[in-house]
Structures are given as C-alpha cells and as structure tokens.
Amino acid sequence: MVRRNVARLVVAFTGVIALLLGGQTAAFAAPTNDDYLAAIAVESIPFTTTIDTSDATSDPTDPTGCYNNGSVWFSFTPTRDMWIQADTIGSNYNTVLSAWTGDQGALTLVGCNDNYYSQDARLAFTANAGTTYRFMAGYCCGNGRDGGGSLRFSVKEVLPPTNDDFADAIPVGALPYTEAQDYQGATRETGEPSSCFTPTRTAWYSYTPTTTESITARTSPGYAGMAVYTGSSLTDLAMSECTTLYSYRPLTFRAQAGTTYLFQVAADGINVHTFQLEAAKQPIADFSYWPSEPNSYDRISFSSSVNDPAGAGISSYAWDFGDGTTSADPNPVHQITADGDHTVRLTVRTPDGRTASATHVIRVRTHDVAIVRMTVPTTARVGQTIGVDVHVRNTRYDESVRVELERSTPTSGYQPVGALTQPVPAASSNKTTRFSFTYTVTSDDLAYGKLTFRASADPSPSRDALPADNELLSTPVIIK
C-alpha cells in the first residue's frame, strides 16, 4: 500500500503544479474497488455492473495464482448453498477472472478462467452458505501491471434444469424432437444409476412410441453420455443401451410400441446441451467393381460403399452375384464364369434391423481373337516383293481387329512393316479371317541372311480375355 499511496501523492502534486502554471491534467481515477479491502459487495443476484478499469492498479498483496494485472475486486456471501456463475462477458478487453476464499495475503483459489470465449472469462462453482467469495478481475496476461478497460462483471445463480430428476423427466411427443438445457446446475440425485459412465450432472427424458421403430438419440455438442432404461422408478431401472461420455456417437436402437424408454443424459461440463430424438435414418449402400468390363476369366473385385447416418453401423453384408452364388464378405472377389448380363445385389443390415440395397448389372463379355498361323515364302531375293498372310480366328463376338506386322533386323529388334484393320466375324473354330501384307526384300535383309515376321492382333475397343495367343512369329524366310 506504501507504493500506491506514494504514486497517488505524486499524481496529486503534479496536478497542483499544472494548475498553478495555467495548464490542466487528468485527476487520478482508479476504480472504487481497486483494492481487495474495497471490494464491491454483491448483495443479491443476479448482479451486473459495468465499470471503467483503465486506471486500475495491481497491489503487491494481490494473489498471483491467476493474472492480477489491473485488478479490481468483488465479493459475494450466499445465504444458502447454490451453484453460481460469474463472468466478464461483454467487456472490451482480454479479461481474466478468478475466485478466492480466505483473507488478504492468505487466499485460497477456487477457480481461474481466461478466454472462456474470445476475450471473455467465466467461472462456475458450488458456493457454500456463509462463505465469502472474492472475485478478482484483471487482464491477460501476467502480474503486477496496471490498466484495463470497460469491464462488465456479472454473477447469477444457475438453477438445475427442470428435468434434473428422474421423476421430472420431460416426455417426448412427436418425432423429431429437440430440446436444449443448461447443465451447469444439473445434479446427480441419490440412487441415480451408473451405466457405461459415472454421471455427475444429468437430465432425464421419456419416450413411448406408438409403433415399433428404430430411433436415434444424440446431443449437441456430441460429447454428452446417454443411457436408455426401462422401468418405473430409480430402483427398478434396466439399462438397454448406452454411449460413453466423449464418444461423440449417437445412440440408435429398436424401440417397441407401448414401451416407455427413459433417457439419462450426462453432461460433465458447463455447457448448454441439446437433446435430439428422431426416427432413425435408413443406411446407404452402394458398391463398385473392377474390372469394369469383365470377362468370364476375370476374378472381379467388389468394393462396398456403405454408411449408417444413425451411427449404429453395419452388422451384415449379403451379396447375390446373379449366377446362383452369394457371399457375406464386405468386399468379396468373385468370378462369373458365364457371359451375359448379371444383376449383382448388395444388401446391408444394421444391428437394429434397418436395411439398404444396391444393384448393378454387370455385363460379362469374353472377347478372344487369336493369330493361328502366318503364311510366308520359304526363300526370297533382294528387290522381290513377297506376300505375308496373317490368319485370325474369332469364335466369340464379331470384332474389328487391327493386325500390325513387323520384320526382324540384325541390330534393332523388329521394325514396322504395316497395319491393317478389318472386321473379323465370329465363326467356328476352323474358320479364320486373312490379313494380307506385302514386303519388298532389301539389301539389309540379305546381309542378315534371313527374315522373320512378327504379327500382333488387337480387338480394341474390346479387351482380349486371352492375349497370349494374340501374337505369332513366322517361320524364317531365307534371303539369297
């Protein structure tokens, strides 16, 4: 206090000198509750005030467990036990708020908060009757500095939600249903059950469906825990479903007509939580497959794409491949051995019995052409034009086939001779379509001494099922 009193004398003396010299200076304007001992007493709640803390100071005796820059003080002594909330929401600077019990120089921290939302601070705690709570409001961050801004300070009692107790469960009528509650004042009543979580703050809802249906319960924010019970009192409840705190998972189950379901919502935090109840949405199913144009020799890879918006997940997969075979794998591999249009169906089921299906017609076509022989002369001479006939067999579907012909070279493998594209109708296995090429023998061929031709057949845009027989080498032509 000595440092502060000296500072005030200096400011006052400076003001007197300024007036004597004909000038003016601002008077010292520290807030009335600048000191711990001058705390503004909150006589009743709800309480709200706005003060200017621009000239607030930090006293050396102010506690340092929570930032004390530009500290000002408030006090409140409840006459009964209650859950209270204090905040600085609406202030124009980065505030810090703390609550203390005890005497100056020996204070015990109850709570400290900075940036509850943006620059605002908020505390909530159980206040005991007859205990004086001291609230210190400062600015972030650090200790020992002066200053502030426009501070808005509020204190209020937070009451339990109307459905805090089991007996006061809010009945849910028609679906969809949405209802928000502030869980700051919520309690756990004596005898309230634990399930997959141990609750501290709960609220209750009840729902009796008129028809048997799958329903989904969820909260927003999604971290609240939920348990579903049947029964008529806390002593005879039987749990049927549960989701843990912080699982962020909805709760979906099959509700029987005429049965009353009790929802225990547990929010171990100080937020407002919205309870939502609706008829469960249907799952979504689809699938893809590869290759996209399969033949009877392909092993087709099926990939399911499923989703349950109700969050229960998929419990079973049922595939019907349209050829008399089935599978229960999520992503099966299957060979359809007969050409034709096959309707493949995927049906998925959730644990509560909801289903979804998807179908695709898979066109199985086995395209297969083969070069069965090449006709070339036995010998040839330089400058002679010789004929090369390529015979292509096709027993499946009419095709348009491109045949490319190449010749051998002594140093660079094979070089192109020419290409022909023509229809190759489907025919019996002993019939072929001839592709006729000509080639004029060169001196390079003579240097090598012999000439070999290579032919390849391509039924594009169809994909050949057995490409191994789409290429053939001729017998060597001796060059003389």
From TrEMBL:
Assigned keywords, A-Z: Signal
Signal peptide: 1-29
An annotated GO BP: carbohydrate metabolic process
InterPro entries the UniProt entry points to: Ig-like_fold (IPR013783), PKD/Chitinase_dom (IPR022409), PKD_dom (IPR000601), PKD_dom_sf (IPR035986)
Entries under SMART domains matching the protein: PKD (SM00089)
Segments of this protein annotated with the region Disordered: 407-427
Keyword flag Signal: yes
Pfam families, A to Z: PKD_4
Domain PKD: 303-364
Keyword field contains Protein transport: no
Protein name per the record: PKD domain-containing protein
Source organism per UniProt: Micromonospora coriariae
